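Example S7 (structure tokens).
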């Protein structure tokens, strides 16, 4: 019997019992759908996380104020006024491989434009902040060193602030007020979207660092060089762990911290955050893969059971074919094709179901569903292999039937 005739005969046998064939394929459908949905949703989530991390900037080490202890009471992070602009200069001067260090201050305030107002987050920055955090200016110009030196009353607006105060129109050249200080809008920041914590990164305004210190009430009255945080951008290929250790040692030395004393600042390597989140998503993917593997195993066992039943039901047919000259190999091939066909058809249905589930789940979660072609091909291939593996025993059993005994079977 030719391969084409074997396939045709197998399909006719499956069409003879459509309900049983459909129920047999159900395990494969669920298994393959789980694989496709797992890979698509996992890849989409990983891509979303990595894009959010990348929007913060690359090769970054964040340094913030530590906590103050008063007696037995430890206040929260950010209560120790421990960082200064001089720390930023020292890091640039003494730590090799540093591309930029950006000191900044941060404040929540109301920004007013005409008869519109909006509560947002103000950052006092230097030009290095835009480079370190990979911010672009889509209209107008960025803050310059001259703006910082002279305390220029200029401001950059994030897209959310522009949309709220100016209805999305061009604000360059317009005036906004911060407290009682008028500021001229010199540019609009490029959009970044939400960060990994779900915060809107475009709901910000940037002013020169010196301008923020002079015009925010209470800011830098005790130490004019004080800053809230430092953003350290390392060059490409830098050893982030080594750089972090060097920065910690330098700051402890500059802050005159005794050996064994707690740091009066905190540090965070954003690449570690990305690695941690990626590891978490991979762990979830492995868990879902285990579930999918169990589903495929159950589907394979179901195929073997149904094929054994089919061998019993078609014993006389098998005996007749053997008596008429069919080779045992032809019987083996036919039953293997039937089991593989069940698996592959189930896999194709599973692919369609898996894509639908992935799109629905990703849509509810708010991230894209990335359909990976390799995963689709792998799922279909594994499904076919499972069908052949679990169909081999029934096929061998059918091929080994004695024609005379088979013809006597009732």
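Recovered sequence:
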């Amino acid at each position: 019997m030719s391969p084409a005739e074997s396939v045709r005969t197998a399909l006719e046998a499956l069409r003879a019992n459509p309900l049983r064939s459909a129920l047999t394929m159900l395990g494969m459908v669920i298994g393959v759908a789980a694989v496709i949905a797992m890979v698509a949703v996992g890849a989409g989530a990983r891509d979303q996380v990595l894009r959010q991390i990348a929007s913060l900037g690359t090769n970054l080490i964040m340094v913030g104020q530590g906590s103050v202890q008063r007696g037995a009471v430890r206040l929260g992070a950010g209560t120790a006024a421990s960082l200064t602009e001089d720390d930023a200069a020292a890091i640039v001067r003494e730590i090799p491989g540093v591309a930029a260090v950006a000191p900044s201050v941060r404040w929540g305030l109301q920004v007013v434009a005409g008869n519109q107002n909006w509560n947002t987050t103000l950052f006092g920055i230097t030009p290095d902040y835009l480079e370190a955090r990979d911010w672009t200016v889509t209209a107008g110009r960025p803050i310059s060193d001259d703006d910082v030196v002279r305390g220029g009353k200029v401001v950059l607006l994030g897209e959310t602030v522009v949309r709220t105060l100016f209805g999305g129109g061009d604000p360059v050249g317009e005036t906004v007020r911060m407290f009682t200080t008028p500021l001229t809008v010199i540019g609009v920041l490029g959009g970044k979207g939400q960060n990994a914590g779900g915060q809107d990164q475009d709901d910000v305004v940037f002013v020169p660092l010196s301008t923020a210190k002079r015009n925010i009430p209470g800011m830098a009255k005790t130490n004019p060089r004080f800053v809230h945080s430092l953003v350290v951008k390392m060059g490409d290929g830098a050893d982030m762990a080594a750089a972090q250790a060097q920065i910690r040692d330098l700051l402890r030395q500059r802050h005159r911290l005794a050996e064994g004393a707690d740091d009066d600042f905190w540090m965070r390597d954003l690449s570690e955050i990305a690695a941690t989140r990626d590891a978490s998503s991979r762990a979830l993917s492995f868990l879902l893969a285990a579930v999918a593997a169990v589903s495929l195993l159950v589907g394979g066992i179901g195929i073997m059971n149904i094929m054994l039943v089919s061998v019993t039901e078609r014993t006389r047919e098998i005996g007749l074919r053997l008596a008429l000259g069919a080779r045992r190999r032809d019987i083996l091939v036919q039953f293997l094709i039937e089991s593989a066909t069940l698996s592959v058809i189930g896999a194709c249905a599973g692919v369609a179901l898996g894509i639908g589930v992935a799109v629905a789940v990703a849509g509810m979660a708010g991230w894209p569903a990335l359909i990976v072609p390799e995963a689709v091909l792998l799922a279909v291939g594994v499904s076919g292999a499972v069908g052949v593996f679990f169909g081999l025993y029934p096929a061998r059993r059918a091929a080994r039937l004695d024609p005379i005994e088979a013809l006597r079977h009732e």
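Notes on this example. The radius of gyration is 34 Å.
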